[in-house]
Amino acid sequence: MVVFSFFIFDRHCECIYLRQWLDATTPSPAQPLSRPVTASSAATNTTSAVEKPPAGNKLSMAEQAKLVFGVIFSLRNMVKKLCGPDDSFLCYRTGQYKLHYYETITSLRFVMLTDIRTENLKSSLHQIYVNLYVEYVVKNPLSPVEHPGGEGVNNEMFELGIDSFVRTIP
Amino acid sequence: MSSTSRARLGEEVWKTRTDKINAELVTLTYGSVVAQLCKDLDGDYAEVNKQLDKMGYNIGLRLIEDFLAKSNMQQKCANFRDTADVISKVGFKMFLNITPTIANWSSDSKQFSLMFDENPLADFVELPDDGKAQAELWYSNMLCGVIRGALEMVQMQVDAHFVNDVLRGHDTTEMRISLVRYIDDEMPADDE
Amino acid sequence: MNRDTSPFRPASTGASPTPKHASLTASTNLRYSLTRKSIYDRHLNRTKTSELSKSAFAFLFGEMVQHAQKKVYGVQDLEKKLNQHGYAVGQRFLELLLWREGRTAKRETRILGILQFISHSLYRAIFQKPADTLEKVRENEDEYMISDNDPLVNSYISVPKEMSQLNCAAFIAGIIEAVLDGHCFPAKVTAHTAPSDMWPGRTVFLIKFEPEVLEREGLRHGST
């Protein structure tokens, strides 16, 4: 399985964490970036040089995050309108990638983009929430309660955890 | 989920999914926090209450995530009576190993009381004999903040405050919780 | 429930002809519930083995750190605040512990004795495990080290780089300091991160005794 990228959005609709391993927009076989990119303040730093979209149609990570949120927010609302407040969507796929979605009651939204062969990842995303986010971010007293601009999510333990977790996803 | 199955869930989470530590460490640490506030604020107990509530609120914003992760609840409560039941039987059980009794519902089902037979935060505690602590200080006020913060995260704005405390010489320890409103989903900021 | 074992009661009750509750009611203006038991009626051992969730402590401790952080200048100041909180907890734990040991409680008069009491009895009572090592600092006559491979209070703490000097186990250092003080072994206790391969969060508590402690030890027990 190939994981392209991973996003966390909070109840204020802000992207508080994003991580990219492979670029989903690159036609297969995807090329690995030289190193994983973490942008903790992607949503606010749209003008920084690093995140300027490269030549061509590629989007910066911040723009991707914005688009992704737009999509999941509309999908989620549509599902709730159609099937009632307790329903939620799990994933959708295109010809190139599959988007997996998990939302907690506290309106944290976990999103992972993978290749299309990957099985549903709802339980994996739930595991990330339970074992990594709650343990290393929520319970870390040195991390702020809320994460405007992503502050405090990208601590060392959480990053390491995400890395090794992504490697174990079947 | 019925009330008895919630009690069972609380029991199960406490027994099998909770790392435990010495209760006295928590009791004494809480005491140190309150005592330090009383000192810092020079005996302004109204302000101490406020600070405790604020600290509790910050805790609540975090604690709810741990609560949801451990209890594995993935669905919102259907109504405020259910919420009360979950707070008492799962929430308090999971963190403080107590199950406060729910009482005194208002007729519109928007207000209830939690009655604390046990309060681990207040073991060993006697309020200062300075003529005003017993009239002004709500020693366990942090708990109110915790509930306020935790419920806000699941889109309920509530008011929570103590109305009785055995530490003040009352016969019960009672917290009053009222639902102010349900909070709507936040919308993403408009694109420029 | 035996009221006489309460450490809060004055020690000299024997000869006094006053009725049992007089001293309590005469000297206080506090109100007590008539139907509820006061803390004096409850046995002190009631909570000896009771447990709460580790998360509850983690959240409380975390908020304590956050709150302390607001009013400090730098890491050292923050550690001092945590030390003070620990000190308050330590004083009370010592009281509880010695009372519980009852007749077998013994007054430690040697440095080694008190350090063993801390790394075994005290540590076990609070953290349900003994400390991992107890050593003497070779170069300095007045320094000892107690180490903890994985301090409970640091379980969820990931220290950001700009605060790399910070060790929140300063709280435990405060507990240790209080217990040493309570035994008349005044000392400064500080917490330092000393990772090993197996234990990235390993913490060493450096105990530096005041000169009079060593002087007394020399007089009483010979320094050779």
TrEMBL record, chain A:
Low complexity biased stretches: 38-49
Subcellular compartments: Endoplasmic reticulum; Golgi apparatus, cis-Golgi network
Gene3D superfamilies: 3.30.450.70
SMART domains: Sybindin
One Gene Ontology biological process: endoplasmic reticulum to Golgi vesicle-mediated transport
Domain of life: Eukaryota
GO cellular component, one term: Golgi apparatus
Residue segments, region Disordered: 29-55
Keyword vocabulary terms for this entry: Endoplasmic reticulum, ER-Golgi transport, Golgi apparatus, Transport
PANTHER family: TRAFFICKING PROTEIN PARTICLE COMPLEX SUBUNIT (PTHR23249), TRAFFICKING PROTEIN PARTICLE COMPLEX SUBUNIT 1 (PTHR23249:SF16)
Family: Belongs to the TRAPP small subunits family. BET5 subfamily.
Subunit (UniProt): Part of the multisubunit transport protein particle (TRAPP) complex.
Protein name per the record: Trafficking protein particle complex subunit
Lineage: Eukaryota, Fungi, Dikarya, Ascomycota, Pezizomycotina
From TrEMBL, chain B:
Keyword Transferase: no
Predominant subcellular localization, coarse grouping: endoplasmic reticulum
Cellular component GO terms held in the UniProt record: endoplasmic reticulum; Golgi apparatus; TRAPP complex
Location(s) in or outside the cell: Endoplasmic reticulum; Golgi apparatus, cis-Golgi network
CDD domains with a match to the protein in the record: TRAPPC3_bet3 (cd14942)
Keyword terms: Endoplasmic reticulum, ER-Golgi transport, Golgi apparatus, Transport
GO BP annotations listed: Golgi vesicle transport; macroautophagy
Domain of life assignment: Eukaryota
Family: Belongs to the TRAPP small subunits family. BET3 subfamily.
PANTHER family reported for this sequence: TRAFFICKING PROTEIN PARTICLE COMPLEX SUBUNIT 3
Protein name: Trafficking protein particle complex subunit BET3
Organism: Orbilia brochopaga
Underlying gene: BET3
UniProtKB/TrEMBL annotation, chain C:
This protein's encoding gene: TRS31
Listed GO biological process terms: endoplasmic reticulum to Golgi vesicle-mediated transport
Subunit record text: Part of the multisubunit TRAPP (transport protein particle) complex.
Region (Disordered): 1-23
Subcellular location: Endoplasmic reticulum; Golgi apparatus, cis-Golgi network
Keywords: Endoplasmic reticulum, ER-Golgi transport, Golgi apparatus, Transport
Pfam families found in the cross-reference section: TRAPP
This protein's record includes keyword Transport: yes
Keyword Transcription attached: no
A cellular-component GO term for this protein: TRAPPI protein complex
Primary localization class, coarse: endoplasmic reticulum
Function: Plays a key role in the late stages of endoplasmic reticulum to Golgi traffic.
Protein name: Trafficking protein particle complex subunit
PANTHER family, sorted: 41-2 PROTEIN ANTIGEN-RELATED, TRAFFICKING PROTEIN PARTICLE COMPLEX SUBUNIT 5
UniProt superkingdom: Eukaryota
Protein family according to the UniProt entry: Belongs to the TRAPP small subunits family. BET3 subfamily.
Cited InterPro entries: NO_sig/Golgi_transp_ligand-bd, TRAPP-I_su5, TRAPP_component
